[in-house]
Design brief:
The protein is α/β, with parallel strands linked by helices and 325 residues long. The protein has 14 helices and 11 strands. Strand 6, helix 8 and strand 7 form a beta-alpha-beta unit.
Length: 325
């Protein structure tokens, strides 16, 4: 497809719903912004993703699409978008919107990917090949306003957090992807006692209960920032961290977006698809006959996560922490 750049005035990027998945689509927004610097880019996103894009200078308008909204509301949204007359639509969700809105250019409704393109970032960017865009920057990003940077600085100062800072994200969208509370507790204790690190737990919602279980198993005292930040403030915290230890979760991808050093613990999901992307990042995963299964139910007592030991996580973290003595 040959795209006439002079015709591209309005662009719509249809992205995903979960925070981590949305972060993995940000290279597409960045690529389109660079290729069409004078075009208006709107982003359609699930409700949880609003905070990611609402202050982004690359994005003109954030459009919220809630899959649970009534059919009449979906119809009104479609009519509203049709009036905007988008010239190009990059649909990363395989929706019917590109067909309904009728842009001059759109990504394929059904997309097949070459076998060697596995990571989700690469697959999202591959969709832009149809517009003639190739060899694109694969780094994700999140725009952090100054106010959010200042807010996290104030929280850190008031809490007494000192360097080195190790952020731990013990939660995940599915309980199958969570490492054990005992494991996190053992590693956190050693990092505090042997590396003089400030260990900070982060997360949202139900992660407060998980962090509490870990804290109850510890001898040393961590810092608990669960439910104390918005997404951009969390990104600002991760940016300042010396190390991020996380399950396969939104924090993993958020850490990569700000260039944090990430140690990721993988079990049922495939790090070739969802793993960290930084040069100095690391993944701990077990090569079991059943892993990665990518299933919602485990028949083997979560062995892929339970077999990760505190010793190997601590030893890897020790190497990754700069200046560790």
């Amino acid at each position: 497809m040959i795209v006439n750049k002079s015709q591209i005035k309005r662009i719509l990027v249809i992205t995903l719903s979960n925070i981590g998945d949305i972060i993995l689509t940000t290279p597409v927004v960045k690529a389109l912004s660079k290729e069409y610097p004078h075009s208006r880019i709107d982003v359609m996103v699930g409700p949880a993703g609003k905070e990611i894009f609402e202050h982004d200078p690359k994005v003109f308008k954030v459009i919220i699409y809630d899959k649970h909204m009534p059919m009449a509301a979906k119809r009104r949204l479609q009519l509203k978008l049709k009036k905007l007359r988008y010239d190009l639509i990059a649909d990363l969700r395989n929706t019917i919107f590109p067909l309904l809105l009728g842009p001059k250019y759109r990504t394929a409704t059904i997309q097949a990917f070459p076998g060697d393109i596995m990571h989700k970032i690469k697959r999202h960017l591959y969709r832009l090949n149809s517009f003639g865009l190739k060899e694109l920057d694969e780094s994700s990003y999140i725009y952090i306003p100054k106010a959010d940077e200042e807010r996290i600085s104030a929280i850190i100062k008031a809490s007494g957090v000192k360097e080195p800072i190790v952020v731990m994200a013990p939660g995940a969208k599915s309980h199958l992807k969570m490492w054990t509370p005992e494991g996190y507790a053992a590693v956190a204790d050693r990092l505090i006692n042997e590396a003089s690190a400030s260990v900070v737990f982060v997360g949202e919602g139900k992660d407060e209960e998980i962090a509490g279980k870990i804290e109850g198993r510890m001898n040393a005292k961590p810092f608990n920032f669960v439910n104390k930040t918005n997404i951009r403030q969390l990104a600002a915290l991760l940016k300042r961290a010396d190390l991020v230890i996380t399950n396969d979760s939104a924090v993993l991808h958020l850490g990569c977006a700000v260039g944090a050093k990430v140690l990721a613990l993988f079990g049922p999901t495939d790090p070739k698809k969802y793993g960290p992307t930084g040069e100095y990042d690391a993944v701990i995963t077990k090569k079991l006959f059943c892993s990665p299964c990518e299933k919602a139910v485990c028949k083997y007592n979560y062995e892929c996560m339970r077999s990760i030991t505190p010793e190997e996580v601590f030893d890897t973290a020790k190497v990754m922490l700069e200046g560790y003595e």
